[in-house]
Specification:
This protein is an alpha+beta fold. It is built from 11 helices and 18 strands. Strands 6-5-7-8 form a 4-stranded antiparallel sheet, with no helix packed on it. It has a 4-stranded antiparallel sheet with strand order 11-10-12-13, covered by helices on one side. Strands 1-2 form a two-stranded antiparallel ribbon. A hairpin with a 5-residue loop joins β1 and β2.
Length: 449
């Protein structure tokens, strides 16, 4: 990979780093605060709460005796509880031996097993909670598509497109086919498949209490509603709102035509004609081979350009109840977690390329690209990354939260924790594994296509 190509249009490498630091700092702060506050609730005292590593830039000590600090290197953070030897919560044997018996309960290693377990599990739990709350907030703020389907706001389309629809129109039929419930994904997919492939369709709508027939473009045109980070479309600066009007000189009017052309390209360069703000612009675009999760839990490899499509209008929305919104947040978070686990498993088994694993450079690039698409996309990305970080910390690797939970499970079964010597060895092995994983991900960032 060309290192210079990692600098997105968002504003250069400095702004990319700022976006990355902001995203990482929010996620780390939430994660570490989970450890801190649950530890305090369960009677474990914290000596240090740090955002960043290295030399301390600013610090203050609160009434509980915890030192809150910002450090020079803003690429992580930690909570150091009483009795900890380091940021990885290794046991400080000498300090523990010198601690008066009545004070041991306030240390991480002298607290009851239940308190330690809750404190360690709280970090990932707070990451998941952040994701759920953000997705819930989006559902409440943006609303859900109204039923029956109605026009909320018309999207900008090339002037030659016939467009008789108006905001407020309730869509009854398109091309002679009744419009199903939009929330029934299977029925709506089948409806889209049956739609006549024509540049202009008849729409039966209810307007001002009357059913009338009007004309409009194909329901799902080659309209760019979203651009994926690190995609072929992002590389050539395709933007939200663009309408692709032709491929290799052949006019297109349906998103499926674009999809078919990309999937059948075998990776060759496609010449696109794009309508943008009243101008026609030509682009040369080379699709990328992409591993995609499937409904059955597997993966399929396809050629993709990283464009999300949509309807010729923004659907009218309604505000969901809080229960519906939070369930949407939980479902979205669960999809991220299950997709991450499935992806990791398929990389381990060799079913998909290990290039799907990104490191700090790749994450920084995505941070900048998502920030370049607006605050909502950036906040959405933070929620996705928060869920992934929470999951990563649950891996049963010593030095990660999951490793500590494994030690606690051993203690619960055997009746005593592993010996201090065994813990030191296991922690060293865990740190080596984490560093190796980070080095591998960094290698992917630099050398994967």
């Amino acid at each position: 990979m060309d290192i210079l190509g990692l600098i997105p249009q968002f504003g250069g490498v400095i702004w990319t780093l700022i976006a990355f630091v902001v995203a990482l700092s929010v996620i780390v702060a939430i994660h570490e605060y989970g450890h801190y506050i649950v530890g305090r609730w369960t009677g474990i005292e914290a000596d240090v709460f740090s955002l960043g590593f290295g030399p301390v830039l600013f610090s203050r000590v609160d009434k509980h005796g915890t030192k809150w600090q910002f450090a020079l290197l803003p690429f992580g953070g930690y909570v150091k509880f009483k009795g900890d030897a380091n940021a990885a919560s290794g046991k400080d044997v000498e300090a523990m031996e010198a601690t008066p018996p009545e004070e041991l309960r306030k240390t991480m290693h002298g607290a009851p097993l239940w308190a330690r377990t809750l404190t360690v599990a709280a970090g990932p739990a707070f990451n998941f909670a952040l994701s759920i709350l953000v997705f819930t907030g989006f559902a409440l703020t943006n609303g859900v598509t109204a039923v029956p389907l109605a026009v909320g706001e018309l999207r900008d389309m090339p002037p030659e497109q016939v467009q008789d629809l108006q905001p407020g129109d309730q869509i009854i039929e398109i091309g002679g086919l009744p419009v199903p419930d939009f929330t029934d994904a299977e029925a709506f997919d089948a409806f889209e498949t049956k739609l006549p492939r024509a540049s202009v369709l008849d729409y039966k709508v209810q307007r001002d209490g009357e059913d009338i027939i009007v004309q409009g473009p194909y329901l799902m045109p080659p309209l760019v509603v979203g651009v994926s980070p690190q995609s072929a479309a992002m590389d050539i600066e395709i933007k939200t709102g663009d309408v692709i009007t032709a491929i290799d000189g052949a006019p297109i009017y349906a998103f499926e035509q674009l999809k078919d052309a990309v999937e059948g390209s075998d990776g060759r360069v496609l010449l696109l004609n794009v309508w943008r703000d009243g101008q026609n612009i030509d682009f040369a675009l080379k699709p990328k081979r992409t591993d995609e999760p499937q409904a059955d839990g597997g993966f399929a490899t396809n050629w993709r350009i990283g464009i999300a499509g949509g309807m010729i209008f923004e659907p009218a929305t309604t505000t969901p109840g809080f229960g519906t919104a939070i369930w949407s947040g939980i479902t979205q978070t669960e999809m991220i977690l299950s997709g991450s686990v499935s992806g990791l498993w398929h990389m381990i088994t060799g079913a998909i390329s290990t290039c799907n694993m990104s490191g700090p450079i790749g994450i920084a690039q995505v941070s900048g690209e998502m920030a370049s698409q607006g605050a909502q996309n950036f906040i959405w990305f933070i929620a996705v990354l928060s869920a992934a970080v929470g999951l990563l910390n649950l891996f049963p690797i010593p030095a990660l939260d999951g490793g500590h939970l494994v030690f606690y499970a051993y203690e619960a079964v055997v009746g005593k924790p592993p010996s201090d010597g065994a813990l030191r060895i296991l922690m060293a092995v865990g740190i080596s594994l984490v560093l190796t994983l980070m080095a591998f991900a960094l290698w992917n960032d630099i050398f994967c296509p």
